[in-house]
Amino acid sequence: MPKKKTTAATMPGESTRILLSRSRVQTRIATLAREINRDFRDEPVHLVGVLKGAIFFLADLARHMSGEVSLDFISVSSYGKETQSSGQVRLTKDLDTSIEGRNVLLVEDILDTGLTVSYLLRVLEQRRPKRLRVAVLLDKTERRKVPVSADYVGFRIPNEFVVGYGLDYAERYRNLADVCVLSLHGKAKKEGAV
After folding, report:
1. Chain centroid offset of residue 132 CA
2. What is the DSSP letter of 186?
3. CB half-sphere exposure, 124, CA atoms < 13 A
4. How crowded is residue 63: how many other Cβ atoms within 10 Å of its Cβ?
5. Residues labelled catalytic
């Protein structure tokens, strides 16, 4: 039986192609969870997911982790309906619980310019966690504007605009199981994520 490819209901002038299949993503997440388990040595870990993009990654990562895992969410905005960040990051939803004295793993879908992760690290460090680490599913190092890196990286990807597995374009495509490159035909080509 031939392998089924992801199909997305695209808008006119848009198309997608698979960059990372769902099976590659799931295999890599299981490996990341083992690395995290080893590094935290079965200490409780508080996962802080960055809404909305990281929700699928956070859920799958948490399911693969052993030991005590708790979850919380934070939300920032810098995009609107564009494919390029505005460069201005603002907090739109704060954490529900204190992270003081806790092992915190910030879970983000993509690290690109570094503006969002850098901003969130500053905000979270002020709250005095025991340890603060970063896990990202995707890393676009060539777009970095600020010197920040992740402790756990799923995949390093080329400078293409990606959707699926939580990543969106104008709130669409998050539900794709694969990570796909989105092409905008006949529109001004823009790249980005923060």
Report:
1. 16
2. T
3. 32
4. 11
5. 112
Report the distance separating Cα 130 and Cα 101, nearest Å. 4
Q: What's the CA gap between 65 and 29, in Å, rounded?
A: 10
Which token pair is 101? 């004295």
pLDDT tens per residue across span 16-73: 999 999 999 999 999 999 999 999 997 999 999 999 999 999 999 999 999 899 999 9
pTM tops 0.85: yes
| CATH topology (fold) of 22-77+88-157 | Rossmann fold (3.40.50)
Tokens representing 84 are 């390029």
What residue ranges do the domains of the chain occupy?
22-77+88-157
Helix (H, G, I), strand (E, B) or coil at 48: strand
What single letter denotes the amino acid at residue 179? Answer: V
Q: How far apart, in Å, do the first and last CA atoms of the chain sit?
A: 39
Q: Which residues contact 39 (CB under 8 A, 6 or more apart)?
A: 133
